[in-house]
What does this fold into?
Amino acid sequence: MNYAIHGSMVAALSESDDRFRSAPTTTDAYFSADIETDGPIPGTYSLLSFALVYAGSFDGKRFLRPSGYHKTFYREMQPISNNFQPEALQVNGLDRNALCVRGMDPQRAMSEANEWISNVAGNARPVLVAYPVSFDWAWLYWYFVQFTKEGSPFGYSRCFDLKTAMAVKARIPISEASRSKLPSRLSSSRAHTHNALDDAIEQAEIFANVFEWEGR
It folds into this structure.
């Protein structure tokens, strides 16, 4: 199968094709995302697992933190190439050979994720959250555009970078705003396990803490 981005998919990059653009409300629905991969870039390497957790909503006036992080989505997928970096697998602990056999087909996994996001968001506009967002966004956007007819449920730019938010609210340089340097009142009590679902829930708690924090 050819996993290169086809020219016909370029239309998915247009905001006019964003099915949430004409939503009747301006409420954002936030989804904390975490991924585990076997390399640094999509296409050449593979997304092995990913998780999405509903992390709250904001209508411009009021942020609603969920009472619990029970709305979750998690999938492990088949690799799409033979390329991988052993050091990446050492970090996430996933069995790549086993995923070649039992992992879900990426087209099915991403289509199911698209449907799940749409159902949870309802009339709100889905926004991807990560700390930082750049790595997770690049992979998930590529996979949604490549493997689903709907394209990205987050459009081409609806994302919230927790690292930037922390830097702005704390009035510190981006280089000082890493997750490892979070003050205890903003961090999560959960362990960072490198399991995508565990870490997406941990990140959702951090997101709510930072969002509600009035800053320095």
